[in-house]
Specification:
The structure is a single chain. This protein has 10 helices and 8 strands. Helix 2 links the parallel strand 1 (24-29) and strand 2. It has 283 residues and is of the alpha/beta class. A 5-stranded parallel sheet has the order 3-2-1-4-5, with helices on both faces. A 3-stranded antiparallel sheet has the order 6-7-8, with helices on one face. The protein is globular. Helix 6 (124-139) crosses helix 7. The protein has 2 domains: 3-173, HUPs (Rossmann fold); 186-282, Pantoate-beta-alanine ligase, C-terminal domain (Pantoate--beta-alanine Ligase, Chain: A,domain 2, 2-Layer Sandwich), CATH 3.30.1300. Bound molecules: pantoate.
Length: 283
């Protein structure tokens, strides 16, 4: 399988492609690819001429207790899946090329990074923004494709692109789901059969809140309570947040107004597996 490890090499491929008027699409990943990632690669292929997929498990977005070493790694399998879905090049840099000894720069996208995921994983978005800024600088893509499954990450990255003037178009692709609605995620493989059955409750909770909104509910606390009540039906679930906010900036007004774009956000543990999901609704 063909991997590009060197920064200079992938940059040259990208620059040469652009010199030849080819549009370069980029999908950053940490590997453990599933259908959700593959849909991002397929989308990139649809709207660009050359697709670069990076596979890099970024240590800066893991906290000490989050077991970076246990993160699933199978480069050959991931590369095969990525190529089959339309990737033209796989960039899999070495850790010391990305973070050489003495590396000391980090990027924080303030405010939007601070609530929800940021509250429970304070290290996370700094690590994501830092590695994405580095990857964008290396790959110099015309466009990037990210998944809605990590909705707050999408907001953080599009703000990063805007604030740092990266000449990159940001595309968000819808979440790919299992037949019971569970969002595809590399963490789903850690669910036991029983937990897997119970995990569908996240999607049901989102659907119930959506239904209440469509019937006229606009009180944010009531909408949140609907999700909490549903999730509590599974006793193995520990909720971190099940909350609604304005989709553009994650602010949390007391009431939503007609025309507001609202995002419902859930993060919870099902026993030891952390699951997140979201849904966007226009009031
Ligand atoms: O979503 C992910 O897989 C990661 O956060 C990303 C964007 C590849 C950065 O490491």
């Amino acid at each position: 399988m063909n991997f590009i490890e060197k920064i200079e090499e992938i940059r040259e491929i990208s620059r040469n492609s652009k010199k030849n008027n080819l549009k370069v699409g980029f999908v950053p990943t940490m590997g453990a690819l599933h259908q959700g990632h593959l849909s991002l690669i397929e989308k990139a292929k649809e709207i660009s001429d050359i697709v670069i997929v990076s596979i890099f498990v970024n240590p800066k977005q893991f906290a000490a207790h989050e077991d970076l070493d246990k993160y699933p790694r199978d480069l050959e399998k991931d590369a095969k899946l990525a190529y089959e879905s339309g990737a033209d090049f796989i960039f899999s840099p070495n850790i010391l090329d990305i973070y050489p000894v003495g590396y000391s720069t980090s990027i924080n996208v303030n405010v939007i990074s601070e609530s929800f995921e940021g509250e429970f994983r304070p290290h996370f978005f700094g690590g994501v923004a830092t590695v994405c800024a580095k990857l964008f600088t290396i790959v110099e893509p015309d466009l990037v494709v990210f998944g809605q499954k990590d909705y707050q990450q999408c907001l953080v990255i599009s703000k990063l692109i805007k604030d740092l003037h990266f000449p990159i178009e940001f595309i968000m692709e819808p979440t790919v789901r299992e037949s019971d609605g569970l969002a595809k995620s590399s963490r789903n493989q850690y669910l036991s059969k029983d937990e897997r059955q119970k995990s569908g409750i996240l999607f049901i909770a989102l659907e119930e809140a959506k239904k209440a909104i469509s019937l006229g509910e606009s009180d944010r606390k009531i909408i949140n309570a609907i999700m909490h009540k549903k999730l509590r039906e599974v006793k193995e679930i520990r909720i971190e947040y099940a909350s609604s906010a304005l989709a553009d900036d994650l602010s949390q007004p007391e009431f939503f107004l007609k025309g507001d774009k609202v995002v419902l956000l859930i993060a919870c543990y099902l026993n030891k597996v952390r699951l997140i999901d979201n849904m966007i609704i226009t009031i």
